[in-house]
Write a structure and sequence with these properties.
7-stranded mixed beta sheet; 6-stranded mixed beta sheet; binds nicotinamide-adenine-dinucleotide
Length: about 525
C-alpha cells in the first residue's frame, strides 16, 4: 500500500463491548497531533539478521517476519523467523565460547574497554536506533532518543563494575588458614526481553553479564527486534569474539523455550509478563538453573493532603501516560486522601485531557500508539470490565478516531473499590484507577492489596509520613515526592509477583557470577588419625 494510505481507508469497526463505554466517555476536545511528512521520516524498512557464532545470518528455514509500525501501519522491519534449531545453534555457540575462555579469561580492564567501545558505538547510532525503536514500539521519537542515549550510561556504568568486581578474603581464620572467595562468571546466560523498552531493558542485562565474563544468547520480542539486532552490529564492530553474544529472533514459544530448557544454559534473565515469567521460573527451577525475573506491576502513588500539589498532579499524569502506560513501573493507580480526593482528581483529569497524543514522530507528542491490536483489545476489555463493575469512566475510555494507527485516549477511572480488578490487576495501557483513603494505615493496606510489588510513590511534605509509608509498602522501589526517576547505581526489581532478583546497582555484575571458596592451609597440617 502506498504511504500514507488514502484517507478513504475505512475505519475499523468498534468492538461491540466498547459501545457502552464509548457513549459515555468520548472526549472530543482531546489533543491529537499528526505529522505531514511521516513517510519521509520513516524511510525504507530495516532488514536485520541474527547473530550466531560471530556470523550475521538468516533463519535456517529462510523464514522471515515483518514488523509494521503500529502508529502508521507501514512496513518498518524485516527479521529472520528462527526455529528451535536456530536457537540451539546459538546456545551451542555461546557454550563453546564460554568453555574456550575467549571472554571469561580476559581481564576486567579488557572487558571494560570493550564495554566502553560499545557505549561509543551506541552513541554514534542514537538517531538510527531511536527511529527504529519509535517505529516498532509506537513510542514518541523524542522519548526513544532519551532511552537510547540513556543506554550509553548503562554500558559505561557496567564497564566501571567490570574493573571493580572482586571476591573476599578471610585472614581471620587463625594462623594456619586463609580463606579466599572468588567470583566466577556463571556461564551461558539466556536473555529474553519484552517489547516496551527493548534496548533499555537489554542494556540492564547484557553489559553486566559481559562485565562478569559470561556469554549470552538474546531473544528480543518478535514485535520490537530492530534495536537488539543493531546492537549486535555494534558489538561486532567493537571487536566481540565470536560466539560471546548471539541473537536469535522469533516467537517466544518457539525460540524462547529452548533458551530456557537447554542444559547448556546456566542462567535465564527474563523481563516480561508475570504469566510467562512463572512458566520460565518453573522450568528453570526444575533444572536448578539460576533465574532472574523482572515482571509486572500495579504501582500506587499515595497522595497526602500536604503534598506539593503541582508536582504531584504532574507526576500522576506522567506516571500513568509515559510510554502510553505500557510500562511495568506505570503509576496505574492513585490512592488519594479523602479530604482532597475530589479536587485532586479533577486537577488530574484536566491535565490529562490536554496531554498531546498522536503520531510518535511529532516532536510534541507525549503519548504515542499502542503496540498491537491484541494489546489494545486487552486494555479496552479492562476498561469495559471496570465500567461493568460499577466504576465511572471519568476521562477517555476509548480509541482515538484516526485514519490509521492504534491510539487510545488517556483514561481515568474513578469510583474504584479495592475488590475491582482495575484496582489490582496490571492493565499495561494509559488507564489510571483512582481510589481514596482516610488514614495512613488504610493507604498502606490499599497499596499492598495486589499480588505485585514493583514500585510505589508517596507524596507529602512531611518526611515522617513519607518514611513511615515507604518502610511499610511492599515494593522494590519507593519514590518519595517524585516518580520514575532511575539511576544505574540504584537496584531495580520487585517483591512478590513482580519478580525475583534485582538489576542495576553495585551488585548487578555479581548476579551473573557464582561464588567459589578456596581454603588454603599454611604450615604443617594436623593429622586426623595416624596408624599406630
Ligand atoms: P511477554 O511475557 O509476553 O513476553 C516477553 C518475552 O518473552 C518476549 O520476548 C516473548 O517472545 C518471550 N516469550 C513468550 N512466551 C515465551 C515462552 N513460553 N518461553 C520463553 N519466552 C517466551 O511480555 P510482553 O508482552 O513482551 O511485555 C509486557 C509484560 O512485561 C508486562 O506484563 C510488563 O509488566 C512486563 N515488563 C516488566 C518489566 C520489569 O522490569 N519488571 C519491564 C518491562 C516489561
Amino acid at each position: 500500500m502506498p504511504w500514507p494510505p488514502p484517507l478513504s481507508t475505512p475505519k475499523k469497526a468498534w468492538p461491540a463491548f466498547l459501545n457502552v463505554v464509548q457513549r459515555i466517555t468520548t472526549e472530543s476536545d482531546m489533543k491529537f497531533l499528526t505529522v505531514d511528512n511521516a513517510a519521509e521520516i520513516i524511510g525504507k524498512p530495516y532488514h536485520g539478521k541474527m547473530l550466531i557464532d560471530g556470523v550475521f545470518c538468516e533463519a535456517a528455514s529462510g523464514s522471515k517476519r515483518e514488523r509494521r509500525s503500529p502508529a502508521h501501519d507501514v512496513l518498518v522491519g524485516v527479521y529472520p523467523e528462527a526455529a528451535q534449531g536456530d536457537a540451539e545453534r546459538a546456545v551451542e555457540a555461546a557454550r563453546a565460547a564460554f568453555d574456550a575462555g575467549t571472554w571469561s579469561n580476559l581481564s576486567g580492564r579488557e572487558r571494560a574497554d570493550f564495554l566502553l567501545k560499545v557505549a561509543d558505538g551506541i552513541a554514534a547510532r542514537v538517531e538510527e536506533m531511536s527511529l527504529i525503536e519509535s517505529l516498532e514500539t509506537g513510542k514518541p521519537l523524542t522519548q526513544a532518543r532519551g532511552e537510547v542515549s540513556g543506554c550509553i550510561d548503562l554500558w559505561r556504568y557496567a564497564a566501571s563494575l567490570a574493573r571493580t568486581l572482586h571476591g573476599e578474603s578471610y585472614n581471620t581464620l587463625g594462623d594456619a588458614h586463609l580463606g579466599v572467595v572468588l567470583r566466577q562468571p556463571v556461564g551461558v546466560v539466556s536473555m529474553i526481553t519484552p517489547w516496551n523498552f527493548p534496548i533499555w531493558i537489554l542494556s540492564q542485562k547484557l553489559p553486566f553479564a559481559l562485565a562478569a565474563g559470561c556469554t549470552a544468547v538474546i531473544k528480543p520480542s518478535e514485535l520490537t527486534t530492530g534495536t537488539t539486532v543493531i546492537l549486535g552490529e555494534i558489538l561486532v564492530e567493537a571487536g566481540l569474539p565470536k560466539g560471546v553474544v548471539n541473537i536469535v529472533t522469533g516467537p517466544g514459544s518457539v525460540v524462547g523455550r529452548p533458551l530456557v530448557a537447554d542444559p547448556k544454559v546456566d542462567m535465564v534473565s527474563f523481563t516480561g509478563s508475570t504469566k510467562v515469567g512463572r512458566m520460565i521460573a518453573s522450568e528453570a527451577g526444575a533444572a536448578l538453573k539460576k533465574v532472574s525475573l523482572e515482571l509486572g506491576g500495579k504501582n500506587p502513588q499515595i497522595i497526602f493532603p500536604d503534598c506539593d500539589w503541582e508536582a504531584a498532579v504532574d507526576a500522576v499524569v506522567f506516571g500513568v501516560y509515559f510510554n502510553a502506560g505500557e510500562c511495568c513501573n506505570s503509576g496505574s493507580r492513585i490512592l488519594v486522601h479523602k479530604d482532597i480526593a475530589a479536587r485532586f482528581t479533577e486537577a488530574v483529569i484536566e491535565r490529562a485531557r490536554q496531554v498531546p497524543v498522536g503520531d510518535p514522530l511529532h516532536p510534541e507528542v507525549k503519548v504515542g500508539s499502542i503496540i498491537s491490536e491484541t494489546q489494545l483489545g486487552d486494555i479496552q476489555a479492562a476498561i469495559d470490565s471496570a465500567f461493568s463493575a460499577g466504576a465511572t469512566i471519568a476521562l477517555g475510555g476509548g480509541r482515538h478516531e484516526t485514519d490509521r494507527g492504534l491510539y487510545l485516549q488517556p483514561t481515568i477511572v474513578t469510583d474504584v473499590t479495592p475488590e475491582m480488578a482495575i484496582a489490582r490487576d496490571e492493565v499495561f495501557g494509559p488507564v489510571l484507577a483512582v481510589l481514596t483513603f482516610d488514614t495512613v494505615d488504610e493507604a498502606i493496606d490499599l497499596a499492598n492489596n495486589t499480588c505485585y510489588g514493583l514500585s510505589a510513590a508517596v507524596w507529602s511534605k512531611d518526611i515522617d509520613t513519607c518514611l513511615k509509608a515507604a518502610r511499610r509498602i511492599d515494593a522494590g522501589t519507593v519514590w518519595v515526592n517524585t516518580f520514575l526517576d532511575g539511576f544505574p547505581e540504584l537496584p531495580f526489581g520487585g517483591f512478590r509477583d513482580s519478580g525475583l532478583g534485582r538489576e542495576l546497582g553495585l551488585h548487578a555484575v555479581e548476579d551473573y557470577t557464582e561464588q567459589k571458596t578456596i581454603q588454603l592451609h599454611i604450615g604443617e597440617r594436623q593429622n586426623w588419625w595416624l596408624p599406630k
